[in-house]
Structures are given as structure tokens and as C-alpha cells.
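Technical annex B. To support the medicinal chemistry partners, we prepared a structural model of the target in complex with zinc ion, based solely on the information shown next.
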Amino acid sequence: MPDLAPFIAGLPKAELHVHHVGSASPRIVAELAARHPDSPVPTDPEALADFFTFRDFAHFIEVYLSVVDLIRDAEDVRLLTYEVARDMARQNIRYAELTVTPYSSTRRGIPDAAFVEAIEDARIAAEADLGVRLRWCFDIPGEAGLTSAEETERIATKLRPEGLVSFGLGGPEIGVPRPQFAPYFERAIAAGLHSVPHAGETTGPQTIWDALTDLRAERIGHGTSATQDPKLLAHLAEHRIPLEVAPTSNIATRAVATLEEHPLKQMVEAGCLVTINSDDPPMFGTDLNSEYAIAARLLDLDAQGVADLAKNAVEVSFMEAADKKKLAAEIDSYTEAALR
Ligand SMILES: [Zn+2]
């Protein structure tokens, strides 16, 4: 099998499931840590690389929280967002729906309007300077309960930044039933936002059914347990409800034991629409290009098959129709040239 890495690296891509703070690479964290010398995060590149080497899920949480602690003012938010786009540009990611959790910042004292202005500034600059189009999914950190749901929905609908396209729900699923968030999703949907909750990553297929019926999910974040329920798989396939798959993340969080046991192939064989994503890439020691390489291996794909996966993400994104057409055409012409 030929090495697909160079093809994947040059392939124009869209990413639909990737988190804002979870995308902070060691380079970005070093810049943030330099702004806040009292933080325990090392700034020395070697110590930082070690700090970032993925060990286990508990270590991921530790790294994640220490990065959250570095986001203290609007300038930190702007810097993080713009630099995340720079890392995306290096991978030829042209469009990304970035999952942002405003509650983590407003709870820490950054005013909501300043937070929104910072991400919007970064979005406009990233598009102009780097050719990366960012859109936002504002997500409820489920573990923070209904207060966070109310605050997230309020910021989304009252401040309604131009780049905002969707409304999400993350955090632990066990002990955090999805139906309680229904009223907040109802209001966000009424305001014109798309519904994209995480579901069925660490719990069974019922959580995915709940996300579909109670939260009116249009795409499912992860949905790894869908393959335990043939009726659900058939429903997702029939209604073309995409699954946002992030293989390395699923191993890191132990949602799936090994890559060999990953349900990606079963999802595709059942006719489900899947997209490939990186979730919290530097913290899981991965990037989107690596996730495409893994997907190619699990699905036994050639270059054309990989390009088709990339086109899935474009098709089920919340881009304008004309932009979808343009990016899909770019993928086609790149693939044609590469296979010639
Ligand atoms: Zn996620």
C-alpha cells in the first residue's frame, strides 16, 4: 500500500469536530505561559514537550486544565484562536468548526462581550492572513450543569457572533443525562443555530437516541456506541445524520480499547456518513493529517477514498452552499492532479 501521508498533507480539508483550548499546541502554550510567568506550565521547549507527551487520560485532563488556567484575558483568547488557525493552515485545513466553550472563560472573569470580540477578531484575521475560515460551535460543558447551559445559550443567542453556526454539548456523559439540556437547545435552534452535541462516546446508544430526539442533533459528536444498536445505525444512515469520528481521541479516552476494534469500518459498512476529526489534537499527540492516515488504514482506502472522506466533511459542514462547492472542487482538482 503506497504511503498516503504526502497526499493527505496536501489535501485541502475541513474539520468539524475540534476543540478550542484542546487545540493549543506546545508552541501556543509556550506563548501563553510567557504572558503569565506565575503559571506552573514550563516555557522551556524541552520540558514543555515532555509535559505534552500523552501518557493517559488523567494526564490529558491535567494538561487541559493547566492550559485553561493560561486563558485569563481577552488577549489570551485572541492569541490562542489565531494561533490555532495557524496550526490548521500548516495542515491545509481550509475550514473548521471550532468548538468553543465560552462558559470556561466567562466563569473565570473574562466579560462575555470581550470574549466574543476576541474570537471574532481572530476569525477575521485568520481568514485574511492564513486563508483558514473559522466558524464556532458554542458548547455547554455538561459537567458544569444547567447554569452553564443557560449562560452558554444566553451568550450564543444574545451576543450572536457572526461566526457562530452551531450549539453543542460536551463533557462527561455518565451521570449527565442529555434530555435536561433540551430547553437550551430548543432556544438555540429557534435562534437559527445547528445542533451538534457529543453523544455515545462513553455511554451506550440510548444517549445518541436522546441526542436525536431531545436535542434534535443534526450531527453526532463521536457516536462510537452507535454500532451496538443496528436500529440506530440504520436510522443514522437513512436520515444521513453524520458521525464526527476522532479515532485517536477514542483510544485516549478509552471509549474504544484499540484502533483495531474501532467501529469506524462498521459505521461505513452500515451506510453511515462519517467525517474524520482530531478533537483535542496536540493533547492526544495527533493532528488531522494523522487521523486521516489512521482512517485510511482502518477503511483500507486509496487516495481517492481519502479524498471522498474529505468531501464528506465539506458536504455536512455548515458552510454556505457556494463555499461547499468551491472547496469540494478544490479537493477534486487536487486529487486529479495527484493521481495523474
Ligand atoms: Zn469533542
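Notes passed to the chemistry partners:
The mean pLDDT is 95.
The CA atoms of residues 200 and 225 lie 5 Å apart.
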